[in-house]
Amino acid sequence: IELGKFSMGPFMLTDVVSGMHFDTQNLLLLDKTSFGLQGGTMELEGSLNLSYTDRIPLEFRLAGRADVAVLNLILDTDDLDLEGGHFELNANLAGDLLQPEEILTSSKTSLKIEDLRATYVPEEVEFPVSVLEIELNKDHAELKALTLHMGEEDDLTFSGDIQNLSTLLFEGIDKPVSSELHITSDKLIWEDYLRLFGKPKPKQAEATPKSDEAIAEAERKFKSSLRNIHTTLNPRITTDIKEFRYRDMEAFHDFRTAISFKDGQTLQLEETRFMHNRKTAVNLHAEIDISDSPKTHMDLQLQASGNPEELNDVLNNDTFFFKEGTFEVEAHI
């Protein structure tokens, strides 16, 4: 079979070539099937079982590459818009052709995308994705790598997994979703991260990136995104950041923390530790308000120990100075 164009749902296939025959009266085999799909080519082989009147069992292998815009058609959501680059797909599919959720929970797929722009539409937040690698094994999604290019100096890489992915993709499925997310970075500058959430709308005059108004708006969008993450995934998050710069403070090094949601309005930082300016060891536990309040309230328990000279900057001493020895501090803020 050779077809110039073939419409299948929202997809327009081009240059369709397929060899097909019946292995038995009800088993249709597709051999050496290929077709063009917006910016790329796919190859397909497998079988359809036509023995039943209420279902069509299939087994297929699908591989190839295409434009990222194709994924918008597959996901069919108003909340996420994908642009730029191509994706590479390798899938072993099984299940009922008439039940997409069954195919998801019975299949194994790997997906890789480079140089992607992903926009979270409700908050108009655009994420510049350098690399995205995902493996789907039945109803389990493993995020192998998601790297965001934050600025000139810093990248942020996510990995983790989601159990019961079908609940997120299909209506009428209420299996509980659970997820783990790991965040790593050699260097993270907080202003670069907030800038993702503080970009002006195209028709607005551009605000000064570090103005109080811009930072407040960026923090509002950031907290709103966190609440949506809690509602959708309720993940447990761990971080490992080699160097973390927050505004004009001295750099934090070896920043590690476990993050979870106490509820939809409160973020918890547990087992948090870092070195301040490589001289002071800090351990803390915090609860952070992520509600829609214009201010961000925090309940913080802190322990710190290290070189007393660090206190000179913290206390803004100009009449006397700490030198030598060690100090220990416990505080509830």
- The helix content, as a percent range, equals 10-25%
Estimate the mean pLDDT confidence.
84
Order of helices and strands: EEEEEHEEHEEEEHEEHHEEEEEHE
Q: Report, as a whole number of angstroms, the end-to-end distance.
A: 72 Å
Query: Mind summarizing the main beta sheet?
Result: 19 strands, mixed
Number of helices: 6
What is the strand content? over 45%
Number of distinct beta strands: 19
Described by the principal axes of the CA atoms, the overall outline is elongated
Radius of gyration: 25 Å
Poorly predicted regions are 200-209
Q: Give me the secondary-structure category.
A: alpha+beta
Could you characterize the architecture of this molecule?
This protein has a 19-stranded mixed beta sheet that branches. 16% of the residues lie in helices and 54% in strands. Strand 14 and strand 15 (252-263) form a beta hairpin. Residues 200-209 have low confidence and may be disordered. The protein has helices spanning 69-75, 100-104, 166-169, 190-198, 212-232, 309-315, and strands at 2-8, 11-24, 27-37, 41-49, 57-67, 80-83, 86-96, 108-120, 125-137, 140-149, 155-163, 178-185, 188-189, 236-245, 252-263, 266-276, 280-289, 298-306, 327-332. The chain has 333 residues and is of the alpha+beta class. The protein has six helices and 19 strands. The termini are far apart.
